[in-house]
Structure formats: C-alpha cells, structure tokens
Amino acid sequence: MSVLDIPGEIVPLDKEQQGKLRRDFHPAELLLVCLNQICPRGPQQKPADSPPNPNQSSEELFHTLLNKLSQVLDFESKGNTITSMTVVKYEEKFTYVFASNQRKTPALKKAREGLSEILNILKSNLEASSKEPDTVIEERLMHKILWWNHVRVRSYLQFLSKELQRCMERCDSTPDATAAKEGLAKLAQSLPDLTDSKEKSDAYIQATARCIQAIQANRNTPLQKYISARSADDHNKLIKGGSWSNLQHVAGRLLSYRYAVEVLVHAHHTWAETDLFRDFEIKSVRSSEPYPAEANLLNAVPETADLILNRAPGSDKNRQALKKNAADLEKYELNKHLEQLWAAKAQEGMRPIVHCEILLHSWLLSTDGGVQSHRFFQGWRYIGTSKPLCRMCTEYFTAISTPVQFRAGHPNSYLNFRLPDPYVSPKQNGKVQRQKEARQRWCEDLGKMKGRVYASVAKVLEEKVAEWKRFDSNTYTDRVKSVNGDGGAGDVGLLARFLGGVNIKGT
Ligand SMILES: [Zn+2]
User: Fold this and answer.
1) What is the whole-number distance in angstroms between the Cα of residue 392 and the centre of ligand 1?
2) pTM, whole model, 2 decimals?
3) Which residue of 54, 84, 293, 501 pairs with 356 in a disulfide if CB–CB is 3.0 to 4.6 A?
4) What is the mean predicted confidence (pLDDT) over 87-95?
C-alpha cells in the first residue's frame, strides 16, 4: 500500500482527556494567540527568501532538499496540504515518506504522482547515456512544479498583480521613486494573462516561469533595495500588511520555486552515485481524522484572562504577577479581544488535527527501527517541512526530546494543534490496561505542553511584545538547527517556573 497507517488502533479521547483540553490547554492557547495579536510586534524577521547557500555541508543540503520537496507538494494555500518528508529504508528500499496536514486518499495519491514525476526527471537524467545541461533539467523541473502547484501559484500571481498596482500608486515624483515605478511597471508587464482560464496550459506555465525569471533578475538591483527599504518602513510604522512588505513577500514566494529547482539539480549531482534519485519508492502517511463531534473541547462561555491565569502552573506569587501584567494590557483591551476570539472559535468549533511533522514522526516511532539513525538516508535523522514549524510543534518536539531534527520554527501558534493520537495493538492481551497506560502518557505530554504554553504566555505578558510573524512561509531553509535544547519557548528560568523547577537543559 502506498498510504501508510500507523499500526494499531487509536485510543479514543475519554472524558478526562476532554476535560484537560477544555480546562488546561485550549484556554491558555487562546490567550497566547490573543496576546500575540494585540501586543506590538517584536523585531523584524529576517528577509523571507535567500538563494541556495553554496557553502552548505552535504547534510545541510539534504535538509534543504527535503524542505524543498515538501514545499513543492504543498499544492494549495490554507494549510491542508502542508507537507513533511523524510527518506528512510523501508522494505529494503530508500523511500520518500511524506505526510500532509489534511489530505484524503485521492489527494495523497495525486501528491505521490507529483513527487514521482519530479523525481523521475532527475532519475532519467542520471540514467541517460548523455547528460542534459543543467539549464534544460531546471526548465523541465520548473514546468512540472508550476503545473502541479498551479492553484497556489495563480493566487500568488493575483496577489502580486494587485500589490504591484498599489505600490506604483504609492511612488511619488522623487527620482528614486520614479525609477522604482518604472521597474515595477516592467515587472507588471511580465505577468501572465491572469484572465486566462487555461492555467495548466504550456503557454501559461511558460509565461509564469518568465515572470519568475524577471523577479530573479531584479534581485540585487536598486529596485529590490527600494522595495526592501519601503517594506522595512512599513514594519517600523507598524503598518500591518503594507503593500511593500506584501510585494516583497509574494515575489519571494514565487522566486522560491526557482530556488527549489536549483536545489534539486544540485542534489541530483551530489548524490548521483547513490540510490536516492535512482532506485526509490514513494509512500504517504494517512492524515489524522477529526475528533468526534461530541468531543467538547472548548467551553461555550468565554473565560477572562484572570480565570485562565488562575490555572497557570507554579506558585500563587507567580499567578499574581501574571495577572498584574495582564491587567496592564487592558490598555489594548485584552479581555475584549479574548472574548471575541473565544466566541468565534466556540462557534466555529475546535477541530484540532495532528500536524504533518508530528504525524510523520509518530509513524517513524511506531514502525521498525523507530527514529534510530540506521534507517535514515546517510543516517541523517531529519524531517523536512513545507513551512517552518509552528510554535506548538516546536514545543512538542522539545518536550519529548526527539533526536530527529527539523526546520527552524516560527513563533506563531495555531488553534488547530493536537497531540499525536495514542495507538494500541488489537492483537495483544490486556487491551483495556494498555489503553489506560496510553491515555496516561498522553496526559503527561499534555501536562508538559501546558507548562510550555503558559511559559510562552508569561513571556509575552512580561515583555508586552508579541512573538508575531505575519507570514509563516519562508525559504531560509539553509538555517538548520535541532529543536532540542533550543525550543524557543522563552528563557529557561521562565520555563522552569511553569514546569515545576525541572532542569530544562537535561530534558
Ligand atoms: Zn505545527
């Protein structure tokens, strides 16, 4: 089977687990999201895109490769197709195993087809008696990737078109602005015809590729510097979603396909003599199922910040300090915003999913070899992702101390996070007892997550600066680090306060 299931049966949430989510986890998570929305933003993030780094080690290049392959399988916006990927020996063959946030079986099949077509371009070149020049391979890959990603790419192009117009309108008559306006107009002319309904036609895709080339040609030009300077200005003036930063972001997203292609070609030369691009399988892990509708995960009546902070772990003194800090934030109408966010979420319904990187990690843990290095390509224990890790996933992997490495995270939290589902084998004896133990382990993990979420809440309350990032995409995938020991959950002292003074570095 090409769709892999985690072996065993899911242990369904019981009333106690539901109660813990309702009391200990989701309220604190909502408070954290709300605080990050209302507090002023922290320092500006790094530039969203950078070209492939030629000085990467081969292991780092492999990490980048997995991130790029995940990216090109993330066909659509809105999060359902966010993808994670690893390469392991499975049934005696190197196997690309990927998982997505929410893809049904037919969508998983399509994604496997897409990956297969992309990898087969590289395979054919390696097996051919005379090799094609890199430019030809790059062109083929670009065409294939843009074809599979046509929905997402079209939305980028529409956004780019709109923001180009808005930025041109903002250019005044100074010499710099006039020159920038001309450059922007040229870029606008390079856009494919967005009224063309044949977005999978060769002509349309070739036009898109030319537009991306035009964006690339603009890198390191005075126009790009002008856009970057205006974008930084938007940030400093706290203009959320300013046209200049939007323009910079969306141009970077389109350009990232070009960088993906360059990484793929470089990687196929680097590992030309291995089976990585010559003899491989492709498998996908089944996405998680929603919790049953009767699982009541959020109280209908919104809670105040004080009520939520009353349940923070630690001492009374800590809780008093947190509540005092929260009271200071009434100048931003903390409780009013919290109530609105809560009510909206209660109405929409809490539908948490197992994020794709946790899903893939759980599949690894529950199959032969677990996360031992010998089963991974070159022994490199890495799970690539199409997006940087969300805050909750980073916290989770840090809390469980996995030896697997991941892409660097971003500070945003989402309200759809859930812990991995516990499984038990139906064949073994003592199922009820094993279910009980699995639930206990889940509760312990939830307790750790609770401590980490409250520590994050405390950090924002104390600093009164949001850990906030407008776009959660970036392509600075050459930044590689383990989440272990660097979870980004605030300082160690803070965490220790909320985890009962344990030695964080040792966990
Ligand atoms: Zn996540």
Assistant:
1) 6
2) 0.89
3) 84
4) 95
